[in-house]
Write a structure and sequence with these properties.
Helix 5 (156-163) crosses helix 7 (210-217) and helix 7 runs parallel beside helix 9. Residues 286-297 have low confidence and may be disordered. The protein is built from 10 helices and 15 strands. The longest helix has 27 residues, at 261-287. A 7-stranded parallel beta sheet has the order 3-2-1-4-5-7-12, sandwiched between helices. It has a two-stranded parallel sheet with strand order 6-15. It is of the alpha/beta class.
Length: 297
């Protein structure tokens, strides 16, 4: 049972967490991926994750030593109850982790925030997250407040470059975190059952401006011909904030694989180039005999 993991809300982050869990606990370690519908179950099954529809095991007495609740709050009017249902299936022997958002912090003048910094008050979305955080801590679990999640084709860079417009100051600070590193932080905490009732702030540790995000993302092949977007006045006129991730580094021993957003983009760009190089070498004999081979290459 100690090898088992229940992932509630098994989307992009949950799938990465399952992969990381199996890396540490073995490919035979059972990971149960719970979703609202069965739409992604074939894919989960292909990834070695045991899919189940939300609530399928309720009332069956099935318990789990390790539970990761990473379902998003958006569009869920029963978010707190969903978490309570997940917490009821935790044995208390391993770890219970709730993925919250670092967007709960009130700071917006470019200052540094830690786990204890003031949070936004009177915001329905923030209140929903804080309510579940409180429930998780009371249950003996721990909370990770994640920075803005991104992948090569997901995140603010993708949206801004596609839209051609950024609503906000170009020098405004944003804190980023790849899905892979977010999952790594969750799994690192899951493997520390001695840690109880703690909150951890998680990012790559390198705040970056909106303008720097866009310039870095232009290195990706998808955006090689994309112009820099226009920066216009938006809802966020502040300078943002800087996340201090010292606590999770020191207490959990976690470090991000990607040291910054630019480091992540460089890794992706290098992988794209390597893939195209291999593809070119594999198809070169055919292309050299094709009448339009120069255009194809």
């Amino acid at each position: 049972a100690e090898k088992e993991l229940l992932v509630v809300g098994c989307g992009a982050l949950g799938i990465w967490a399952a992969k990381k869990w199996k890396t540490y606990r073995g490919l035979d370690a059972p990971v149960y991926g719970e979703t609202r519908t069965n739409a992604t179950h074939d894919y989960l099954d292909d990834e070695g994750i045991l899919p189940q529809v939300k609530g399928a095991d309720l009332g069956m007495g099935k318990m789990y030593d390790n539970v990761l609740f990473c379902a998003p709050p958006t569009g869920n009017d029963h978010y707190l109850q969903d978490f309570r249902d997940a917490a009821k299936r935790w044995t208390g022997k391993g770890q219970l982790v709730f993925t919250s958002s670092a967007g709960v912090y009130a700071e917006d003048d470019g200052g540094t925030v830690t786990e204890d910094s003031p949070v936004i008050e009177g915001n329905a979305r923030v209140d929903k997250l804080l309510e579940v955080e409180k429930e998780c801590l009371a249950s003996g679990g721990s909370v990770v407040r994640l920075a803005g999640l991104m992948a090569a084709d997901r995140g603010p860079h993708s949206f801004w470059l596609s839209a051609g417009e950024v609503k906000g100051r170009p020098e405004g600070l944003i804190n980023m975190l790849s899905y892979e590193d977010a999952a790594g932080a969750c799994v690192a905490l899951l493997q520390k059952p001695e840690i109880r009732k703690e909150v951890f702030l998680v990012s790559d540790g390198a705040p970056v401006t909106r303008e720097e995000i866009c310039r870095s993302a232009l290195k990706l092949r998808k955006h090689k011909d994309t112009p820099m977007p226009e920066f216009v006045e938006g809802d966020s006129a502040g300078l943002g904030k800087k996340y201090d991730i010292s606590k999770i580094r020191e207490v959990v021993g976690w470090q991000p694989n990607y040291k910054s957003f630019d480091d992540f983009i460089n890794h992706v760009a290098e992988a794209e180039l390597a893939f195209r190089t291999v593809l070119h070498l594999q198809t070169k004999p055919y292309l050299s005999n094709h009448p339009d081979h120069k255009a194809i290459i």
